[in-house]
Amino acid sequence: MANKLAISSVSLSQYPGHTLDHKIRAASQAGITGIEIVYNDLLIYSKAQKISIQAGAQKIYTLCLETNLQVLSLAPFENYEGSTTPVEERLALAQHWLELARLLHAPYLQVPSIYTPDCTRDEKTIISDLQQLADLASSIKPIISIAYEPLSWGTNCSTWETALSIVQRVDRPNFGLCLDTFHEGTRLWGDNASSTGMQMDAETKLRDSLRRFVRDCPLEKIFYVQLSDAERFEPPYSLAHPWALPGEAKEFTWSKHARPFPLEVELGAYLPVVEIARAWIVEVGFEGWVSMEVFDRRMNEGRVSPEMAARRAVESWRKVQVEMKSKSRL
Predict the structure, then answer these.
(1) Quick one: DSSP state of residue 47?
(2) pLDDT band at 329 (very low <50, low <70, confident <90, very high)
(3) Contact by Cβ (8 Å): 56, 93
């Protein structure tokens, strides 16, 4: 397929001993061609090097050049639109992130939909905040594009349809979508609190959503696609579950602990990732970046090396491509 494969830096390991430069080399060696740099990984790397984060970004970009790896994005600029803090403060922080994105030569700044409860629901404010962010990102060359991602536990935006409506109202050429199979799958199909692992009418809801996507989503507004699966909870999620935190959405808990690479059924993966990816990639003719963004708790203790994670990512993408092609012929 025409799509190039990237991976989030946190999806190569979340173990403190596995540094960002190690992860970059591992991704390159496995044949991955792009990487999403997670801000905290860059910060930890820079502190370990005893240099500023700006100098760290420059060193990481040089390393990516040497290893033939393209930086896809700087991520995730969280809880921005509609926050109760003054917009001037948020834009000042955004300016810092955009500076780093330019030093990394990243074309995208990833912005997940806000998920804090203490934010405005006023649509005009939300749109204005995002327009100001997009305008700031285009005020200096190279222009940075804002990849807006609907989180399944987002306060105001939790579906691709709501996100697309926001994208259309923001109405800026550098403002589009980052789509993640985990969020589509857990918003419309999966349920970690159910003994079946599925929502009521899951198949119908997902099928109808994907049909509307193919019909309604402009191809030029799909900036890139992220792939991730999810494990079924055994026992089902409840407030007594060892991973549960007071006030945290069950989908957020799910995301932090049990997101293996797509089709890793041996690890409990069970979401209809192929069906979602087929609609988002094959049926609409999307030929841009596909990025693996997983959060596998097994990576937290150092037992999974970045090399192992990178190989898993490549094998997962191979399986997804095979499955998408076979299903497209049915």
Answers:
(1) H
(2) very low
(3) no
Residues 107/147, Cβ–Cβ less than 8 Å: no
What's the rounded Cα separation, in Å, for the pair 206 and 114?
23
Number of structural domains in the chain: 1
Q: How far apart are CA 154 and CA 246, in angstroms?
A: 17
Q: Tell me which H or E stretch contains 120.
A: none
With H, G, I as helix, E, B as strand and everything else as coil, classify residue 84: coil
Full domain range(s) for residue 35: 4-326
Beta strands in the chain, from DSSP E residues, in sequence order: 5-8, 34-38, 70-75, 108-112, 145-149, 175-180, 222-227, 258-259, 290-292, 295-296
8 Å CB contact between 174 and 138: yes
Task: Give the CATH number for residue 103.
Answer: 3.20.20.150
SS3 content of the chain, % helix, strand, coil (to 5): 50, 15, 35
Residue 321 tokens read as: 């491509």
pLDDT at 327: 63
What pTM, to 2 d.p., does this model score?
Answer: 0.96
